[in-house]
Structures are given as C-alpha cells and as structure tokens.
Design brief:
about 210 residues; alpha/beta; Glutaredoxin; two-stranded antiparallel ribbon; 6 helices; elongated
Length: about 210
C-alpha cells in the first residue's frame, strides 16, 4: 500500500509548506531591519510621536558637527576624531572674561557623572568642551575633568549656529553628538545627571553604530 504523504500528488503541498516556512523566516529576519529603517526615517524626517520618553530636546533635523570648525591644539577636530564614539559636548555661554559660568560648571559636573555611571559603556562616549579661539584651558577645570577633550572655535558663530538651528535658549548647553557627526539632542543646566544618563544609555542600547 502506497504512503499517501509520499505520493507524487502531495509534492506540491510539501513544496508550498516549505515555501511558506521560508517566507515566515525571511519576515522574522527582516523585522529588525524594518524597525531600524522606520526609526531612522522618523528621526531624519522630523516626525516625533507623542509620548516620547527622551529627557533632552531633540534637534530636528540634526545639525552638522563639521560645521563647528573645531580645533584641538590648532589641529582640526571633526567627525573622524570622534573615532566611532558618541559625544557629550558642552558649549558654554559667552562671559566677558571667558570664564566658565555656574551653568557651565554644572554641565561639566553632570556630564562627568553621567560618563562615570556608564561604567563599561563609557569607552563608547567622549566628552568635549568647546571654548573660544585664543582661550587657554582652565587648569583648575582640567584637573577636575582630566578625560575631557578641550576644543577651540569661534564661539560666537558656533553659538549662533547652534542656538538658532536648535531653537534653544541662551546660556550654556550640553549637546549629544552621534558617531556620524549629527548633533541631535541638547540639555540645559536645569536637567539632572540621571536624565542625561538615561538618554545616552537608551541611545547606546539602540545604536548600531558607535
């Protein structure tokens, strides 16, 4: 007696089942890529859903890190120097004597505490401090923040670019920069270290870069 399941008449059924199995597996593998593509489109198109959980203010569309024309000891500091890392970048307010204001020092402190709290993930993040051309590093601040990259630029033009495009208020700000050189979120001294930490942790968790 012939086995019905192995009869030639059932071959199309077996092929259809096999094809359906492959289609299901393909869809399962495709879902993460679709999710990443959707999130990328939402971010760069400027669509922000209600109920978002980020603490900082999103910058949409993101600004270009390369536009800041930063230097480190007269050597250009651009996206390549980020070396695939995220950045916590502090841009201080303008003061008559080019000193770091109270808000500026608070953001330095918050960025340091958030960076320490990242623990083993801290290597994925670099801290940057932007100051005006011709201004030397504050030795006291450098001792407090030895892992900081101290950078120079035309601070007035840089602040005008950031404040106008990011629609942010006056004063000192902390910006998050992704490894591709997109300035994508900002904070003031009114934010807490935990708020900054939660945002950067979430970005590192979701990121396929850096």
């Amino acid at each position: 007696m012939n086995n019905v399941l192995t009869s030639p008449a059932n071959e199309p059924v077996k092929r259809a089942r096999k094809r359906r199995t492959w289609i299901i597996l393909f869809c399962i593998m495709l879902l993460p890529a679709l999710g990443m593509g959707l999130s990328t489109w939402m971010y760069f198109s400027g669509y922000v859903p209600e109920g978002r959980t980020n603490n900082g203010s999103l910058i949409l569309p993101p600004l270009e890190f390369s536009r800041l024309n930063l230097t480190s000891t007269d050597i250009a500091f651009g996206m390549e120097e980020l070396d695939g890392r995220w950045a916590l970048m502090i841009v201080p307010d303008m003061t008559p004597d080019s000193t770091c204001s109270d808000d500026c020092e608070q953001l330095l402190y918050l960025s340091r505490q958030a960076h320490i709290a990242l623990a083993r993930e801290s290597d994925r993040v670099v801290r940057l401090f932007v100051q005006d051309n011709g201004v030397d590093k504050d030795m006291a601040l450098e001792q407090e923040h030895p892992a900081m990259e101290w950078l120079n630029t035309d601070l007035l033009k840089t602040r005008e670019y950031l404040l106008q495009k990011a629609k942010s208020s006056e004063g000192s700000h902390l910006y998050i920069v992704d490894p591709l050189g997109n300035i994508m979120m900002h904070y003031t001294a009114e934010h807490s270290g935990n708020e900054i930490l939660r945002d950067i942790q979430k970005l590192l968790k979701l990121s396929q870069i850096g």
